[in-house]
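Narrative progress, year one. The postdoctoral researcher (J.K.) led the effort to move from monomer predictions toward full complexes, under supervision of the PI. The following entry was the first complex the group processed end to end, covering 954 residues in total.
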Amino acid sequence: MEPTKTEGTEYFHQVVDCQWGCPAHTDVPEYIRLIALGRFGDAYMLNRKSNVFPGILGRVCDRPCEPVCRRGRVEDKPVAICRLKRVAADNRGDITSRLPVAPKQKNGKRIALVGAGCASLTVVNDLMPLGYECVIYEALDKTGGLMRTNIPAFRLPASVLDEEIDYIVDMGADLRLNTPVNSMRELLDEGYDAIFVGSGAPKGKNLNIPGRNDSDRIHVGIQWLESVAFGHIESIGRKVLIIGVGNTAMDCCRTSLRLGADDVKVMARKPRGFFKASDWELEDAEEERVEIVVNHSPREFVLRDGKLVGMNFDLMEYDIDDNGRIVDTRVVGEKFFPCDDVVLAIGQDNAFPWIERDLGMEFDRWEVPVVDPVTFESTLPGVFFGGDAAFGPKNIIWAVEHGHQAAISIDKYCRESPLTERLPRGVNLQSAKMGIHEWSYSNDFDPAARRIMPHVDLKRRFRKLDIEVELGFTAEQVITEVERCLNCDIQTVFTDNLCIECDACIDICPVDCLTIAPNADEDTLKQNLKAPVLEPSQPLFVSGPLKHTARVMVKDENLCVHCGLCAERCPTAAWDMQKSTLDIPYALDEAAEEMARCQRKAG
Amino acid sequence: MTFIAKPKIVHKGLSRNALGLTIRDYEGGMSTLCAGCGHDSVTSAIVQAFFELDIAPHEVAKLSGIGCSSKTPAYFLDASHGFNAVHGRMPSIATGASAANRKLYLIGVSGDGDSLSIGLGQFSHALRRNLDMLYIIENNGVYGLTKGQFSASADVGTKAKKGEVNEQQPIDPVQMAMAQGGTFVARGFSGDKDQLVPLIKAGIKHKGFGLIDVLSPCVTFNDHEDSTKSYAYTRRFFHPAVHADFVPPAEEIKAAYDDGEVMPVEMHDGSKILLRKVSEQYSVHNRGHALDFIRAHHRRGEIITGLLYIDEAEPDMHGISRTPDEPLSQVPFGELCPGSDAMKGLQERFR
């Protein structure tokens, strides 16, 4: 194999699985270390730089970082990355003086933003400090978008939302509540320099089966959750069926329990393993005695004397192949489930009835505007999309990343610079060696298991709709959980011409991830490794030829616990532990670069 | 040296042997040797060999004398028996241990100082009585623990780190063992586990005194350019004469070998060593011939390695002494020590 190229940012970034998995590339290991040091405010600000809403995301993020966490491969459970973020937010103290501020002197550019959800707010967060005037149009009488309407208050308290949204709005954004945008043409006519659409995916999917329109006790999940959030709905029948098994379904079933239901069933068409809901959301719902019924496909609503009394379901049977894919489906029977209410939580769509189709904006065959995945610009110059409005329903952390990228594009658009000429990412490596046997991070592997989040007890939590169920980690739990982080950003960096092939690193590696072997093609090399390759998706590091024997050093990144023992045992410092810091450009950095470019031109 | 112990992580790629143990169960305490010391690699090879042989750690006694090498038994097989003897006297302790319990696997780890200077006499006599043990000499040509003076195995012309040249003839434990009638003589290199691990396995299974002289560079005092015991020099002049593959008793010989090229040697427990000649003219059963071959190459500065001589037919200490098969430690006391009356009777016979 050719020696691995570690020059760019790709290789070392990939090794930090959590940061690589996070759409916004939050520097997870660094904020966990800051928490370990008790520097909660610093940890919060580091988070805020990339994900803008640490308090919110620390409670309700979809956590793409956790399933990929290396700890989950070394043992069973990943580090509780998400809930540690909440620790930083809960204990941050007063950080208001460290928040970005908007300059008094504006740059004369006005931006309109449609929707006051996470995507729009991120754009405002990034553009206000550059002197832009931001006008936010919000149809409802509160900010937050789906974060407020679709996520129940027992998971995300309103106070947390308000605080973090106010950080942004208080920079001086022009927030117009109760102001729906009914026409894109009219908005364009207002003469804004750019428009950002962050209106989400507000249309819940319907279920067109017999009886659907014959009762008012059949609710569309996201609209129903919104009505609950705004106090328009305060009760529900005792028996409730939830159709669908995504994260919205989990919010619907748990909300039902708090509105008077005592028999809630989540009806799933497919078996477990095909559920869209995250494992932890399923766990939380099941802890509240919600029954999840698998292999039932809705057939019809059953009404008696005009009143909804239940639903009929087809009993499904599936053939699943070795790869876990469904290869055949059969209906093997029918079953009736009585109920008072039904909540449909089978997905949502974005809908743009307010965008005229003759504006020159291209729509695809699903009636969704065509959006550039890098610049987030639609085919109508100056109109940008982000969040669920851009590529359909994802989650908050994706919307935040869209917002960051759209903000860069909007700034470039307003400066009349090409949108695609964006700053590259950078990576900085710095040795973590502090002295003999001394490293600048806690490298001793702690075998502790993942801490379990304490919850309000089952009796008390149902008394009110907005009792936050998760209590947050205790101080003792935090101390243990932070040590579970493997510090994957402290990279093992190898210098081949220093190696004397003494095998010291190979002998000491606690997970057998190092091998010195004659160079060969990838398959042969993989067969000659000290431990078998368990995760082919994980990168393999291959050094250049070693000077004594021309063999190569091979490292399987999969299980490396970054204990630093290879570097500690290396007599020639061929191995070194170096902290990698990823440099991700934001609108502020791009703007600084633009200004420098202008100055160079002028000079 | 490191202050951080190797954490015990039972990861998903870790295999288990016939006893259900992982290789981590054969490790010992944290090494306090210099980072990059060859001895740590030898330790690791010993760990691997015992793991692969499915030997329970409590069936092993590890013995040593004094020196860097003699510290290493602390770093493997935590759950075995052990004795750290005075300088050069490990063979006596091993003799006692073997006499008391012949069922124990004995492994002695010594160095060039411990075996070739202060303990040379003890070493010779252990060879002579064909004590059933594996005797590893971690040979680096210097006294590392006392800051790098030449040892008895330093080659003529090699330089110390400060520049002085050695002019005295070296003692080569391999040639000595060969000349003294050793029954299993091998040489390995800490930097080549593919060769070393099968040698250790064969040495453990050999009935009699198994000597492996392991070139194990001293990374602190003897790994410089003018040293003949450095990693670089050893790699350059390292000549495997015979490659030994160890095959456990129950296993069939699966690998394809050409006839005549491979010679199987049957061990006492039914396991086999497959000897693959690397040098054409080498004969592993002809003591005189082997000795000539090693000497000839030594004159050219080459280091001949591999399993250099083996004789499974010679009786070991227990065979010579005609002791019972049962370990003496398990013979009832009354039988083992018949009492003063029996002693008197015995003495009467000589009056």
